[in-house]
């Protein structure tokens, strides 16, 4: 459960075609991150496309590209 590891601010920082972005904070370290939450039931979200995005973000290691830290999935959302 993402909320066990991170405190998630309820304010939305931005929205996109597939989800919304909020700020979150690691409960153990206080480190701050952005979390993108994607609704799995959205008809525009293809499971294969989502899996590909996760795979690509895991592989990306560049100072100019965001780094994927964690992936959580619950009944309604995938949180990146």
Q: Please tally the helical runs, counting DSSP H or I stretches of 4 or more residues.
A: 2
Total number of beta strands: 5
| Structural class by secondary-structure content | alpha+beta
Enumerate the strands of the largest sheet in spatial order, edge to edge or round the barrel: 1-2-3-5-4
Radius of gyration from the alpha-carbon trace, in angstroms: 13 Å
Provide mean pLDDT, rounded: 92
Proportion of strand residues: 35-45%
Largest sheet: 5 strands, antiparallel
> Outline, from the CA principal axes?
globular
Q: For the terminal residues, how far apart are their CA atoms?
A: 13 Å
Helix content: 10-25%
Oligomeric state as shown: single chain
* Series of secondary-structure elements, N-terminal to C-terminal: HEEEHEE
Low-confidence stretches are none
């Amino acid at each position: 459960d993402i909320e066990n590891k991170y405190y998630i601010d309820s304010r939305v920082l931005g929205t996109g075609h597939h989800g919304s972005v909020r700020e979150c904070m690691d409960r153990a370290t206080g480190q701050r991150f952005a979390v993108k939450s994607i609704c799995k039931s959205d008809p525009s979200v293809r499971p294969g496309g989502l899996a590909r995005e996760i795979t690509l973000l895991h592989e990306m290691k560049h100072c100019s590209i965001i780094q994927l830290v964690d992936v959580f999935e619950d009944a309604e959302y995938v949180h990146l």
